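New to this. Help decode both lines:
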Amino acid sequence: MNGSNRLGKESLPISQQAEHSQHHDTEHEHTDHTHGTGEPAHPHVHSEESLRRIANRLSRIEGHVRGIKTMVQQNSPCPDVLLQIAAVRGALDKVARIVLDEHLTECIARAAHEGNIDVEIKELKAALDRFLP
C-alpha cells in the first residue's frame, strides 16, 4: 500500500476505516514507530482481516461507551453504570490481549528472524510499562 493510500484511509472516521479495510485483501504495513528520529524502527505488517477484526471490536466498544454516557444522562442507577463500565474494561482488555498476541506472534517473531529483536523487545517493554498498572 503506498503512502497516499495510507494517508487517505487514516483520514477517514474509524467506522469508515473499518469499512475501507474490508475492501482490501492485502497485507497492511505501518511504520510509525520513529522514536522521535523520523526513521522507522521497524515495519509492522498485519493482515487486513486482523485489522478489521480489531477495528470492529473497538467500534462495538465505542458504541458501548456511548450507551454508558446515555445511561448517565438519563440518571440510571450507579450500580448499573458501574457494571457497564466493567464490561467495557473487560472488552478493552480483550482487545489489548489480541493486539499483544499478534505483536508477539508476528512482529517479535519477524524481528527475531531479521536480527533486530533487541529493539523490538525494548519497545514492547516500554509499551507494557505504560499499559500495565
